[in-house]
Design a protein that fits this description.
The protein is α+β, with helices and mostly antiparallel strands. It contains 9 helices and 14 strands. The longest helix has 17 residues.
């Protein structure tokens, strides 16, 4: 584990404790921005809130900034419009970059999700080039999401990710889902590369959920209802290491909960072990837009899960 990741792990714990019991969104944003700014030494750290067709400046730490940003404009507007985190190694090379300050050299903007919609973005700037990477993306997405209330993250590998995403989206309390590739060796892999089974990645669904509505124990229990936990590298008609099953966590406090669920499954099956991984999340790279919400865009598209499985979800 890198020093940066260790620091983020501690910051996630601090951020959860910091916002606990506070219901005001602006107040939560203010302290999250202050915590990140102080502990990570960023140059500019703050939120822009979605207000109609614009992003409006929210609580921040750093020099004065742009008040309003149109959807699709600059890095912040692009993150909102494309519904994804945008990492920019050199802002001067980003088309349409809005120069609020000439001192900004690199930037990361992560969308903040609430009730399956983007309600804000967390914007962070550095005076150095190439400051931000995949580690920043994963952890800042988790920390930024706390601005709108309790929010936790878990990653499920359940075979083909098209059907798995549709399933988890149906569960009450799930606020965001995204398909991608987890725990492999290759950085920023394409679907075609992962399909060769040479990258070490598993097709995976990133799930953000409100723990006051649905618990990790419940989500993990539902996960085991949509997989064959005794099948190695094969779910339905899909076969290969990319279709292996597993649960990947970023918050170490999740492990005891997951271990109990795994132990219960093994007991029910009468086996000592199952070929379902339970590991820390090492990396996660979102798949391209074609694969996101695939079955919503293609209702008759391929799915290895039977229609009856979706009735298990709670809404």
């Amino acid at each position: 584990m890198s020093e940066k990741e260790q620091k983020y792990r501690e910051l996630l714990r601090q951020a959860k404790a910091l916002v606990e019991g506070e219901s005001d969104v602006v107040a939560r944003m203010a302290n999250i921005a202050a915590l990140l700014h102080r502990e990570m030494g960023f140059w500019w750290t703050g939120f822009y809130r979605v207000e109609g067709k614009e992003l409006v400046l929210g609580p921040f730490q750093g020099p004065v900034a742009c008040y309003r940003i149109k959807k699709g404009r600059g890095v912040c507007g692009t993150s909102w419009a494309e519904r994804r985190t945008v990492v920019v190694p050199d802002v001067e090379q980003f088309p349409g970059h809005i120069a609020c300050s000439s001192e900004s050299r690199s930037e990361i903007v992560v969308p903040v999700w609430h009730n399956n919609d983007i309600v804000a973005v967390l914007d962070i700037d550095s005076r150095e080039l190439s400051t931000f990477d995949e580690t920043d993306r994963i952890w800042l997405e988790m920390i930024g999401g706390l601005a709108y209330g309790p929010q936790c993250d878990i990653w499920f590998a359940a075979g083909c990710f098209w059907g798995a995403q549709k399933f988890f989206k149906l569960i009450e309390g799930v606020e965001f889902t995204e398909v991608g590739f987890a725990n492999g060796r290759l950085k920023n892999p394409t679907y075609e590369q992962v399909y060769t089974d040479t990258t070490g990645h598993a097709e995976c669904v990133h799930v953000k959920y409100n723990p006051e509505v649905v618990s990790l124990k419940e989500l993990a229990g539902l996960y085991f209802k949509i997989i064959d936990p005794l099948s190695l590298n094969k779910q339905g008609g899909d076969e290969g290491t990319r279709y292996r099953t597993g649960v990947f966590y970023a918050d170490e406090s999740d492990l005891p909960v997951l271990e109990k669920v795994f132990a219960s499954v093994k007991k029910d099956l009468g086996v000592a072990s199952i070929p379902v991984e339970l590991l820390p999340l090492l990396c996660f790279y979102p798949a391209d837009e074609y694969h996101q919400d695939y079955l919503d865009k293609n209702p008759g598209g391929y799915c290895h899960l039977s229609p009856a499985v979706f009735k298990i979800a709670r809404k």
